[in-house]
Amino acid sequence: MVSQLIRLLPELILVITAIIVILADLYARRRTARWLLPGVTLVGLAASLVAAFVQWAAREPVAFTLAADSFAYFFKMVAALVVMIVVLAGMDYMRERTRFLGEFYALLLVATLAIYVTVAATDIIMLYLGLETLSITSYVLTGFLRGDKRSNEAAVKYFLYGAAASAVMLYGFSLLYGITGTTDLQEMAKRLTSGEVMGSLVWLAWPAVVLVTVGFGFKASLVPFHQWAPDAYEGAPTPVTMFLSTVSKGTGFAVMARVFVSALPALSEYWLSLTYGLAILTMTLGNLVALRQASVKRMLAYSSVAHAGFILMGIVGISAAGATTPFSGIDGVLMYVLAYAITNAGAFAVVAAVEDGAGGASFEHFSGLIARSPFLAAAMLIFLLSLAGIPPLAGFAAKFFVFAPVIRQQYYVLAVIALVNAVVAAGYYLKVVKHMFFVEVNPNGAISLSRGMEIALWACIVGIFAVGIFMNWFAWLATGSAAGMLGM
Amino acid sequence: MIPLSWFLAVSAILFVIGFFGVLSRRNAIAILMGIELMLNAVNINVLAFWRYTQPENPAGLVWAIIVITVAAAEAAVGLALFIALYRLRTTVNIDEVDLLKG
Amino acid sequence: MVLQAIFILVALFTIGCALMVVLHRNLFISALFLIASFFGVAVIYVLLEAEFIAVAQILIYIGAIATLIVFAIMLSRGMMTGRTSPRNAQALWAGLGSVILGIALLYVVAYRVQWPVVQKDVPADAIARLGSALVGRYVIPFEVASVLLLAALIGAVMIAREKEV
Amino acid sequence: MDGLLFLIPALPFLAFVLIVLFTNQDQKVSAGLTIGATAVSWLLGWYFAFRAFFDPHGVAEEPIRLSIPWFPGGYSIFYTGFQVDVLTAVMLFMVPFLCFLIFVYSVGYMEGDPRFSRFFAYLALFATGMLGFILADNLLLAFIFWELMGVCSYLLIGFWSFRKPGETHIDHAQVKRARAASIKAFITTRVGDTIMLAGMVLLYAMTGSLRWSEILAPETLEKLADKIVSMPVFGVAPWATVLAILIFWGAIGKSAQFPLHVWLPDAMEGPTPVSALIHAATMVSAGVYLIIRTFPLFHVVAEGSNSAMWFVAFIGTFTALFAATIGIAQFDIKRVLAYSTISQLGYMFAALGIGAYIAAAFHLLMHAFFKALLFLGSGSVIHAMHHGHHVSHEHGHGHEELPIEFNPNDMRLMGGLLNKMPRTAWTFIAGGLSLSGFPLITAGFWSKDEILADAWHGGHMIVFWTLAIAAFVTAFYTGRQIFMVFFGQPRSEAAKHAHESPNSMTVPLVILAVFAIAAGWVGIPETFPGLGAVVRGWFQSLMGAQLEALHLEHETLPFNAAPLLISMTMAVGGLFVAWLIYGRKPLGYEDPLARPLGGLWQAWHNKYWVDELYQATVVAFAKWLAHFLYNFDDRWVIDPIVDGVGRYGRRFAGAVRRFIDEQIIDRIVNGTAWVSNVLGEFLRQIQTGQAQNYLLAILITVTVLIVLGIGVG
Amino acid sequence: MALFDQWVLTIILFWPLLAAIIVLFIPQDQEDRIRRFSIWMSMVPLILSTLVFVDYGVRFLQGTGGLQYELQVAWIPQLGASYHVGADGLSVPLIFLTALLTTLSLYYSARTIHHRVKEFFFLFLLLETGMFGVFMALDLVLFYVFWEVGLVPMFFLIGIWGHENREYAAIKFFLYTLVGSVAMLLAFLALYFVTGTFDIVKLTEIKPLAGNLWLASLVFFGIFLGLAIKVPSWPFHTWLPDAHTEAPTAGSVILAGILLKLGAYGFLRLLLGILPHAFAYWGWVIVGLGVISIVYGAFVCMAQTNLKRLIAYSSVSHMGYVLLGLGAAGVALSGTVSFFDKNSAALAIDGALLQMFNHGIITGALFFLVGILYERAHTFDLTRFGGLSGKTPYYYGIFMVAGFASLGLPGLAGFWAEFFVFRGAFDIVRIWAAIGVIGVVVTAAYILWRIVQSVFLGEFNTEWEGKLWDMTGFEKVTLWPLVILMFAIGLYPAPLVNFFNRAAVELLTQAGFMF
Asked: Buried (b) or exposed (e) across E347-369, using 16+ Cβ within 10 A?
């Protein structure tokens, strides 16, 4: 029992930290709270990250509907890391816009906790609850700037969309429950593969997969379930956007991978064709719309939709045979989520800084950024190049690991479509680069950065280079994590 | 004994009605009601499966409880958001809320 | 047979109320129909021998959620009675789609599939089992649910608070 | 001593480098360097040449060699170096000597030119090219020097293609002509060279070597003659023929044979010593030399339509007559000579084409002497005319009314120069007689007669008669030139005020005149009655040694009076007719033949409109193609797409500016740009901001998928 | 010596990167320091690469050839990808060329770039590392990494310091190249799944996919696309005129001098080395595209009025020779033609390699020269010049040398490449080679007609009176090394041909070519 609780240490730390934050908010003075709250949050996240890291290699049996596998710990680490960046980058942003800092950090911690339990869930009930917890805290975070029409509108839309989508997903889950008679994912896989539940129940498999995918697709913002995302990303406070577009989205993929791969391998024919189609749709449509955006923030939102398509390639390319070897597909998802999360977090952090410094996030606000803040421009450049998949940055490692399984499965059509999309994406990233570097403006109006933002950006940059250059280490981590999920 | 499929049919109809409400009502609160209907439909499903396939396993019951709990939390947050919306715009008609688009 | 007849009546009642929920112009009346519909669902739970859930349904849904909704309707007065149409522009398409989806689901769920039904009684200690599950296997979800409720509470309060930045 | 072989081309090159790098500012030193270096080369050259003359068989069998490894090619090593055999020796006798004379002459001719030093640098480089070319022991090295000559000719022909401040002796029109001429020369010869390059690389591929000694070895040639290649359009032929013809194209370009002859007359725009150099000692001779050198390759398939020989013969013969007729109707003193060069070169090729190896070599040599003489002489005349023009201006006689524009080269403005500049005149006449083949005494007679005799003897009657007619025409236009320039009355102030050129110019003339007359005597055939016994066909036996070394049969022709008489008649007759028309009565500014001959005269005068034809076909086509492709590249393919994007953008999005300005990126997707835009815009517009619209998308997706799934499953 | 052997390439490779990073720390306003520092730092790889060149030559004479200076350090062991560098006769001269042109470009730019100096030198040094990397990498992933690393700095060089249309050109350049490189990446992955390794040396030994022509062709064309765009071969060339025209002088020099070579180098290292069968099978495609590029590029040059654009198109034409040579070798490998000389394939590759090297020198020089003119006149419009030969004789002289070298005049570097290419190609693909020969003539025509006649001859445009001065000291210093190289190679190509020939023969032997 105790040993199992230790497995839950990362989660426990988060809960405790959240409580401390609320208490500190009650008792600390306003001035102290400004640094104390994010400080405590950071410490808690860091501790949680360490706890997750230490236990990464655990091969514990499933308990309390939670898996203590390396797959889950991988996502927990990514989540902790990115949320730390979010906190660092968003400290000043939030401080200037709201006085409910205690609530903000507490909710952020709860959202992180939700991610923790979701990615580890091995039971549909836990899974659903985790996702809903994440969603509900996210609604609040999105609408956190209660005086801001846009923030509120974003939250309302997000809420309505999310609630409906999760209801649809839940209906799908109930069908799965009906088919298999169990809520446990492992058990489900067993019953499906052993042929216990064949016959006319097969009729339900496809509707169930489709309905379930709606919920996952909503979280991962896959086309055509993506439409909430750009609006929510634009309206939400930028730190929250960072959170939503990175780890929250990543959670969608984690859940999808776990449900599909560990629970429904027998139905792979259904979900493979579904994800194949969604991957193409997602990357293509996401890119096409991103191409036509006038706001960098919104462009990044759409680009994040497009990236979801790329991540999906990892799932499409899943090969059950080679989960312990690199390029199993799942490790591609992991690599991509990691790389994409730190990169996009960085990119949105820059957007936040520019919003603060220049008063907006349209392309014009980025014009001549190199003169106004060389560091910001350089950082953004690195992020954009990483998003475009240029080596030796993280984005390249990520693309490498999702293209590979697709090639291995000989889905050449998908590969070529992805290729074209990668280039189209580079096209609109370059548009930002063009504005930042090629457009000459008078250099007054320099943008100053807070310490927290600087640290956050440096963390992203270092992370991006680290993932890109020491790809071996991260690939090892990802491959090991992927193997962990399949219980190997 | 009532056939299982009857329950499922009721559930399906309820689900679709709820979905229709979500899609067609202008008022945000009405939409929320639609969502609640959908969740109820799910619960009927879950409990029907529980009853007809494995009444000895309490998972279905747990599920139903959790869903109800989540629904409550969702309703609380949602209604709070709607109230804030109303305060900011004096409307809760969702099709009038489209600052963010394109 | 009696059970079946009761079921049909309850089902029709529930569905009818649900329809009224989504169709009625007056939001307040919609809310009342919602309560009625919830009640019908609770009866269905009873028919499924899940009395505990039925009670929970009545307590939480009718006692809490529906009340909340009514409060919200009161707070956002003026929207209560529809001077304008309660339905949006896409209602027709939504209806059409819903009907098709409903037919498809019914076709599969209630017609196509032969459900492997086990003839078992609900064990007498069902509630006890539920209780031990909630502190055993499902302890974590249980805890998380409480965290969720807390978080939702904090969030809802924060957002719905009267003006104060 | 053999090791010094490389010095022959290296010395002038050294002079070139020194002038360019160091002595550019000092005209005297520069000229001295060039002339000194050439003089040493000349002496060295003669040393080797005479070694060969004294031991023809030994040198022909075992050429004097200097060879080093050059570079690896695949699995073999390419060696390169210089060699002297009898043929080289003959050239070595002529080339540096002529170069030397021409360079000395240039000192006087180019005096006062602001780019005097550079001129000598180019001359030195030119000498390098030619000397290296004749000494090279392989085709590749020869080709390099060959192209070097091409560049030098480009530089020298275009020497007056721009003016330095203060340069007054050249006018704008001349600058323009020089510029066009130099480029034309380079590009036209480049056409030939490129074809030759193709032949060369093929030859290399076929034989694995490019050394003369290896590619011309009988067993190699046998192999080439036996191997058959089938080509589109041209059909089937032995490799030897194909290679020979390809290489021959190089000679066609360099030696200005039809149809690549157009550059040579224009090349007269260069300073006259350059013309002499190009026409006599170097460039054009190089082409003939190349074919003489590779003669075994041509000869190995000697008979039938598969032979390259008939092609050579045909081009040569045709050009000989073709160019000669044009020569009749030219007024520019140098152009007449230019066409005569083309014509004479045609003679040589005709000779080669009928297998008259020795005759061709002989004529090459003789032609070099008398053509150098003629050009230098004409240069002297032009120099004098120019001078006379100035003098007449200075003395106030300048405002004479001429029916034609003044041009120091124009023979219509000359006349009566015999008295003004006797040394020039007499030497020129000596050269002219040699060119027209004045019987018995002139060098030209012996060499030309040799060719005609060979043709007669070999039974090539068409060749014979064509050449004979050409000989007549040659004599005629030479006579015309002599009478127009030196006899009669001066027809302009400039001619009146002309006087003799300085010694540095006339001394070379005199020396050359001696050669132009006497050099031919070395080749009087052994069988020639009387004289033959004295000389005993020295030249023939010398070259015979070379032929033997190449394993080609060499027979001494029996004496035959018929061709001899015909040749004599043609020469004398031509001169006589020229006298009848041009010498007997005073001339006006219009040619006496222009009216009677009418259209024919126009055709000759306008060079058969070949230039115009090329302009209208090849050049125009190339330009059209260039523009077509350019438009295709830059305008028709890419721009229309962009335009299309713009147009449809206006129509569909109404955001024209944004479309054109910011959608640069879309160009990458070229064809799909439009689609992606419209689609993107559409997708952007379905992002209505209405959450319920978004949710409807879920409903539709789910419904469609499930219904489809049910339908399928 | 062992230390030298192992580390020299790595030092050359990362030295510029190190320098670039240090440049970042020099304050922005100390422009002179940045300039001097960069130039001096770039001397180190130049000296080392010269040393390597000489050392490799010595080894060559001693009879050791093949890959030298190898260093392999595990990088992504689970994928069989490693940091594996090495150099052979193919790459040693190209590494030297890279170092040389970079140093010259930096030197030239020190006097001509006055705007955003720090960024310029930073990017340029970064670019150098990228280029070195491609020539040294013996691992596909590493290769790809450096391939892309070179892309970004060039994008900025064009986009920031370019001319009027720079943004368009920069983005076009970037996206075009990206299409190709991603396609290449996919092909690399496909190779990996067949063989389980990314190591080029191993792959060269394995020669995967020999039995599966369909997949081999797919892989082949994936890589081919990336390389052909970079080379660039017709019809993938349309980015080039824009990029070259708009780039700053030093950028054009590097672009034409080195970046295009990356593609050609890849043809040998990757396609011929790893996929000899597919290379042989599709050799005729390469030949065809090469010949079209030659002729097409040359004709398009004739119609240009923009001097720089003309030189740019001439690159298309000249790189066509490279393709012709390589393709001919491929056709020879395929065994579908039976008549050729055994040396021809090697000679064709020699020619292609020589063309790569020589084109780097010659076109580099030409772009410098065009840049020098632009510095004074601020226009590339040919028609506005004339008579410069009298005004700027020194400039004219150097330009003539470069021009003649470009049109393949014997005695200058360019000739050898043409000679070898045609020597090889004429024996193998006669008809194509014969068509390609047209390009030689047209080249002469456009160099003389379009450039020399318009710019140097004729009437001097008085518009420029007093505005055009002859070459100054630093410009001469920039160009003389290149001119000397043109002459040196032109007169005595043996050292270079030795390297190339050895490498070509080794490649062909590895590819299974029977001699």
From this structure: bbbbbbbbbbbbbbbbbbbbbbb
Answer yes or no: do D696 and C90 touch at CB < 8 A: yes
For residues D89 and A467, give the distance between their C-alpha atoms in angstroms, rounded to a whole number.
Answer: 75
Residues in chain E, total: 515
In a domain, B84, yes or no: yes
Partner-chain contact E179 D668, CB within 8 Å: yes
Query: Residues A429-479: pLDDT tens digits?
Result: 988 898 888 887 766 678 888 888 999 999 999 999 999 999 888 988 888
DSSP string, A315-351: HHT--GGGTTSS--SHHHHHHHHHHHHHHHHHHHHHH
How do the residues of chain E divide into helix, strand and coil, expressed in percent and rounded to 5?
80, 5, 20
Contacts of D172 (CB under 8 A, 6+ apart): E459
Range of the domain at B34: 4-96
Cα–Cα distance list, E432 to D350, E285, E287, E301 (Å): 33, 11, 7, 21
Chain C residues whose beta carbon lies within 8 Å of the beta carbon of residue D706: 101, 104-105, 108
Give the 3-state DSSP-derived string for C43-98, with helices as H, strands as E and coil as C.
HHHHHCCCHHHHHHHHHHHHHHHHHHHHHHHHHCCCCCCCCCCCECCCHHHHHHHH
What sign does the CA torsion over A11, A15, A20, A21 have?
positive
Query: How sure is the predictor about D439, in pLDDT bands with cuts at 50, 70 and 90?
Result: confident
Question: Is D687 in CB contact (< 8 Å) with chain A?
Answer: yes
| B101 part of a folded domain | no
CA distances from E191 to A315, D574, D701, E78, E267 (A): 21, 81, 38, 16, 16
Give the tens place of pLDDT for each residue, D308-317. Answer: 888 888 888 9
Peptide bond into D259 cis (omega under 30): yes
Calculated CA dihedral for residues E401, E405, E407, E409, nearest 10 degrees: 100
- Chain C neighbours (≥3 Cβ pairs under 8 A) are A, B, D
CA distances from D102 to D34, D124, D271, D377 (A): 11, 11, 12, 11
Torsion sign over Cα E493, E494, E499, E501 = positive
Residue type (1 letter), A267: L
CB contact under 8 A, D710 and C108: yes
Contacts of A275 (CB under 8 A, 6+ apart): A213, A260, A312, A315, A316
**What are residue E83's DSSP bridge partners?**
E73
CA D32, D34, D40, D43 torsion-angle sign: negative
The answer to the question of residue B18 being in a domain is yes
Q: In chain B, which residue ranges form alpha helices assigned H by DSSP?
A: 4-24, 28-53, 59-89
Helix (H) or strand (E) holding A249: helix A249-257
pLDDT (0 to 100) of residue E323: 93
**B102 within a domain of the structure (yes/no):** no
Max Cα distance, chain C (Å): 61
Q: Say how far residue D662 (Cα) sits from the centre of its chain.
A: 56
Rounded to two decimals, the ipTM of the complex is: 0.88
State the angle between helix axes of A149-180 and A202-220 in degrees (0 to 180), rounded to the nearest 10: 160
D703: nearest CA in chain C? C101
Asked if E144's CB is within 8 angstroms of A415's CB, the reply is: no
Distance CA D130, CA D150 (A): 10
- Residue-wise pLDDT for C108-136, tens only, equals 888 888 887 777 888 888 888 888 988 88
Contacts of E419 (CB under 8 A, 6+ apart): D140, D197, D201, E351, E410
pLDDT over 50 at D584, yes or no: yes
